[in-house]
Design brief:
two-stranded antiparallel sheet, 23 helices, mainly alpha
Length: 485
């Protein structure tokens, strides 16, 4: 997979210098000197010094590149030493916000990164502790950085995307992508010794990696998702820590900021993790569902990650069907009142939840559940009403309704009858008649009984309405008489 991705990355070959035989001490001196000048780009006090020294080290940089041959040009005994030198060389950072600066140097570094990935994926070399330390150092130098994500409240109002803005793409991505490929190869390769690697891919490294999930660039988040999932799979000692760290990110998102770009990707990782939970489920996993996953339905921006969230909820139900009561009541607790698009999402998720619900658990939740569905059936927003009718038309849910029709029909029949008489949308009207006919064919005597009751209720409502109008007219008349006195 890595080689296929690498073949898609365009490579520009540059002519290397003629002298490949410079002493290693001179090479290390140039590396450290260049690194000290070019990597401190965040210190404004050194700006004049950097500009002055950058020209001074330009020739040294060219000499440095000429002193680093490709891996195929050196003997196998020298490749490890060359690997370390190339790693140090790739620690040099450049300003990608200015596309006109250091063009040659940037391209040289990019080709060197590609060489490192090719060497790591093709050499089948087991890295020593020193080599892995240099690998993590180079990766950390390149990917760990501070960035300010764009505020999402400007884009989203009540769960609706008002503007289809393009995500902010990182200008350094041509280099970052290869660094991520290199890190991924180091994690997934069978030759990587976990005992050696765990000293450097530790809790601190994982926390910094999780901070990067707030990146605006979706390409970066996709790589981070793959890498973190691979770390979770390979480093068993870090698994509890990763779950707790993700939980903390979600809690901060739900109860404090409601702003994070990587919730969907983190939920994708969790979906795979939940799928691997052993049975019976531990109490801490159930608490995570109750206190974190269910409250994730609360934020206005739930549409951005709802598909992944719904998958996680269903995964829990497939592990333990007795959780259906907790999940359904949680959905009802956070059910949207004024946001119709969010209500459509909830109905879709509810359909998936009910398909995974067993009959015994269904009986515990059917009364509050169908009171909410009844309200949705009478929604003036046609998509909400239509989605609720689709839910009733689902084969698995139909079976549950048929088994409990004596309890459910009195709840939903008045809503169906109102739709068949008064709803403004033609598709909703047609679906309602179809479902109403299904229930009539199933149990005509029961439907006739509820129809008679519905007509009586409607007649009583008309009487109450008339009495209310008469009362108001009397109040208006008394008010007018007092006003003339």
């Amino acid at each position: 997979m890595l080689k296929q991705i690498l073949n898609k990355i365009p490579r520009k070959h540059l002519k290397s210098g003629k002298d490949h035989n410079l002493p290693s001490s001179a090479v290390d001196e140039v590396i450290s000197a260049s690194h000290s000048v070019l990597s401190n780009r965040n210190n404004p006090k050194d700006e004049f010094f950097r500009d002055k020294k950058s020209k001074e080290y330009e020739n040294s940089f060219t000499v440095l590149y000429g002193s680093l041959p490709s891996f195929i040009e050196v003997h196998s005994s020298e490749k490890r030493n060359l690997f370390l030198r190339k790693l140090k060389f790739c620690c040099i950072l450049y300003d990608f916000n200015d596309p006109t600066k250091n063009l040659r140097e940037k391209e040289i570094k990019r080709n060197t990164l590609l060489e490192l990935v090719e060497y790591a994926t093709s050499a089948n070399v087991k890295l020593t502790e020193l080599e892995f330390q240099e690998v993590v150092s180079m990766v950390s130098m390149n990917i760990f950085r501070e960035f300010t994500p764009q505020p999402r409240e400007n884009k989203i109002l009540d769960g609706l995307e008002l503007e289809k803005d393009e995500p902010a793409m990182d200008p350094a991505w041509p280099h970052l992508q290869i660094v991520y490929e290199f890190l991924l190869s180091m994690v997934v390769l069978p030759e990587t010794d976990v005992k050696v690697a765990k000293g450097y891919i530790d809790k601190s490294f994982v926390l910094k990696l999780l901070d990067l999930f707030d990146s605006e660039d979706p390409r970066e988040r996709e790589y981070l998702k793959t890498i973190l999932h691979s770390i979770y799979a390979k480093f068993m000692v870090l698994r509890p820590f990763i779950r707790v760290a993700i939980n903390n990110i979600f809690c901060r998102f739900i109860f404090e900021t409601e702003k994070h770009n990587g919730v969907a990707e983190l939920l994708e990782i969790l979906g795979s993790i939940i799928n691997g939970f052993a049975l019976p489920l531990r109490d801490k996993h159930k608490l995570f569902l109750q206190r974190t996953l269910i409250p994730l339905h609360k934020p206005k921006s739930v549409a951005m990650y709802h598909q992944q969230l719904s998958y996680c909820m269903v995964q829990f139900l497939e592990k333990d069907c007795k959780l259906a009561d907790m999940v359904t009541r949680g959905l009802l607790k956070y059910w949207p009142v004024t946001n119709s698009s969010k209500e459509v999402l909830f109905l879709k998720e509810l359909e998936e939840v009910l398909k995974a619900t067993m009959p015994t658990e269904f009986k515990c939740i059917m009364v509050p559940l169908f009171h909410q569905i009844s309200c949705c059936l009478n929604s003036l927003h046609f998509q909400v009403a239509e989605r609720a009718l689709f839910l009733l038309n689902n084969y698995r849910i139909e079976k549950l309704i048929i088994e409990n029709r004596v309890v459910i029909l009195p709840i939903i029949f008045p809503a169906l009858e109102k739709n068949s008489r008064y709803h403004w949308h033609q598709a909703v009207h047609g679906l309602t008649l179809s479902i109403r006919k299904f229930f009539y064919d199933l149990h005509p005597d029961l439907v006739k009984l509820y129809l008679l009751k519905f007509r009586q209720d409607e007649s009583n409502k008309e009487e109450i309405k008339e009495k209310r109008e008469i009362t108001w007219k009397q109040i208006e008349k008394l008010a007018a008489e007092r006003a003339t006195k």
